[in-house]
Input
Amino acid sequence: MGLLDILLGRTKPVAPDLDQLFALPSAAVTLEAAAGFTPTGGGAVCFATVEGAAFEQTHREVQALLDADTDRTGPPVKLERDTYGYSWLVSERTPEQLVQLVNDLHAVNSAMEVNGFGPQLLCSLAAFRDGAGRRLALVYLYKRGTFYPFAPVSGGGERRDSALELQVKAALANDLRIEQDLSRWFPVWGAPGL
Output
């Protein structure tokens, strides 16, 4: 970044650091101790919908790679579209397989990035639930290289539990690179895997 950029207030965008995803298993231990949330085994990677033969080939390669995992229990990795027009590659594991789920999320992001679809990547999430049935996602923002909690309120409507999100932010401050700009804590309503 040059002097002119500094004077004009321009900042260099943060490069995605997919290895940040590997911090999720240790953050899950902290999250369980601090707030009682445990992994559900669900996770997904969200990206802007892409059409064309190159993307279809990448999707097939990623799906074949992840479906070949002999430790996989449950349904194979699947591609879903949400009501907002975004695509999600969803992985379902058992709650004890958070490490394997993180590997799945990393593999999907890496494959998309290597094949030239990095600009379409938006976020990845891992789902959690507590004993009272409250849901929580730890969302990784691809273009920011940061995480934030998303806690939808169960029972109709698009409402979120902001107090819980702030509690989780404080609890995980030493485990994950938390997004400090709260305006970037985008809701992921109806996200598959959550």
In short: The chain has one domain: 14-184.
